[in-house]
Design brief:
- This protein is α+β, with helices and mostly antiparallel strands.
- The chain has one domain.
- Helices cover 35% and strands 32% of the residues.
- The protein has a 5-stranded mixed sheet.
- It is globular.
Length: 108
């Protein structure tokens, strides 16, 4: 839990602070399929360093829409290696179940 809080705080700080990472907003309908596909396309980045972790971070906007930040984060250097932002009015069941009890999901 402490690690998750640290990662969430660090990621939000990096994204809000204008980190040198391009964040593109995607509007998609098959969320889980797109998330899995995005990670599969970046397997080499995740596997290039044992400290790299794949994650999704759920934020709830005041408008009721959900925002997911998906990326690859290096725990040791505290740098985001790759990231994208996904906005949605709806979430599919798979992604909803993953984030039902937690804001941050780590995939290893």
């Amino acid at each position: 839990m402490i690690f998750e809080t640290f990662v969430i705080t660090t990621l939000l700080g990096l994204l809000a602070g204008g980190a040198a990472v391009a964040v593109v907003t995607y509007f998609i309908t098959r969320y889980w399929d797109h998330i899995v596909s995005w990670f599969q396309e970046r397997t080499d980045v995740v596997n290039s360093n044992a400290d790299n972790i794949a994650f999704t971070l759920k934020e709830k906007m005041t408008s009721g829409e959900c925002v997911f930040v998906q990326g690859i984060f290096n725990k040791k250097t505290e740098q985001v290696k790759d990231v994208r932002r996904i906005e949605s009015k709806e979430v599919d069941e798979e992604l909803r179940s993953i984030h039902e009890a937690k804001t941050l999901a780590i995939y290893q």
